[in-house]
Design goal:
This protein is an alpha/beta fold and about 325 residues long. Helix content is about 40%, strand content about 20%. It has eleven helices and eleven strands. A six-stranded mixed sheet has the order 2-1-3-10-4-11, sandwiched between helices. A five-stranded mixed sheet has the order 7-6-8-5-9. Helix 2 links the parallel strand 1 and strand 2. Helix 2 packs across helix 9 and helix 4 runs parallel beside helix 11. It starts with a helix and ends in a 7-residue tail after the last helix.
Length: about 325
């Protein structure tokens, strides 16, 4: 009888082992490496910040968090891949503002809801925008630029890294809030746009605060305003958009966030969120982010979800009021 019971027990164990795996369990998560997909090329701001975060999350979660770049189609290749992934927490997405904007500009191409179709984990950081012009331009402050734009409708030009990017939409926010008519000149990336700005061939542009300090110090660029609520130490004496009467530019900054596949169990989402917040609390991480012009955000999944709701509404309004159209 004892032998029979032992064999029966082994048979039950064998049957259990042969059955498909059940739902993801949070008590043993993570038990293998986590893939962090980034929808942008290696070396860009989102990729660099994701790699800093992944290193610290690996330490906190006691498993490898491996960054995998899947650029293309306005970061939607990576997003689509994670949307289709198993909701077990082993494939997650680091993305940015394009996640909110793509379905607004291209509703027939990107048929997803940025609030519902991935599980928000944590808002990692935001990248403040600064309004710059060439050092030799006639604009010494934002008031002068706005006055000239009003006096000469359709004459001023502003550059961006492309249609629907943070630089484009920030300029549209300025235009709609001031009743300005200006010409958008999109480029294939911030780098080419900045070169045209330095040459004085475009009137101004909003630019991420990353990597322009040297141009300012060398008197090639002039910063007219910063898109933060508080002045930025990197640009002493430069007023904020808020102080000049232009509101919500701090909320309109490009953001970088972490999302998981839809249906990921809440305990797993919480573990990922805890790891992100733990990493962002480390002084060395905050220092590295600061050196790249990124402001850590953090917070709960609910706070990130609420932010995405506001982000969707905000950009829908900007796009409608500015009559912004996606590229054909």
């Amino acid at each position: 009888m004892k032998t029979y019971k032992t064999l029966a027990a082994w048979a039950v164990l064998g049957l259990a082992a042969s059955l498909p795996a059940g739902p993801a369990r949070a008590d043993d998560y993570p038990s293998r490496p986590i893939r962090m997909e980034v929808g942008y090329a290696a070396g860009g701001p989102t990729d660099v910040l994701a790699r800093i975060l992944a290193k610290e999350m690996s330490d906190i979660l006691k498993t490898s968090v491996v960054v995998e770049n899947k650029p293309g189609a306005s970061a939607s290749i990576a997003a689509s891949d994670v949307m289709r992934a198993e909701p077990d927490g082993y494939k997650v997405l680091v993305t940015s503002l394009t996640w909110s904007v793509n379905p607004l500009l291209y509703p027939d191409r990107y048929r997803y809801d940025p609030v519902k179709d991935l599980a928000p984990v944590t808002n990692i950081c935001k990248l403040p925008m600064v309004l710059v012009t060439s050092y030799g331009s006639p604009y010494k402050d934002l008031k002068t630029l706005v006055a000239d734009a009003k006096a000469r409708p359709g004459k001023l030009t502003f550059g961006s890294s492309g249609v629907g990017g943070s630089a484009h939409l920030a300029a549209e926010m300025l235009a709609t809030s001031s009743g300005l008519k200006m010409v958008h000149v999109p480029f294939k990336g911030n780098g080419p746009a900045l070169q045209e700005m330095l040459a004085g061939r475009i009137s101004f542009m909003f630019y991420p605060s990353i990597g322009i300090a040297n141009y300012v110090q060398q008197k090639q660029l002039r910063v007219l305003a910063v898109g933060t609520r508080e002045p930025m130490p990197e640009f002493p004496g430069v007023p904020t958009m808020e102080s000049l009467g232009y509101h919500d530019f701090d909320q309109g900054a490009s953001w970088i966030g972490l999302l998981a596949p839809p249906g990921t169990p809440r305990p797993i989402v919480d573990k990922l969120s805890h790891a992100v917040n733990g990493a962002l609390a480390r002084p060395e991480v905050r220092q590295q982010f600061a050196s790249l012009g990124a402001l850590p955000v953090g917070g709960t999944p609910e706070q990130f979800r609420d932010f995405l709701v506001r982000d969707k509404v905000r950009w829908a309004g900007v796009i409608e009021r500015g009559h912004v159209k996606g590229e054909e």
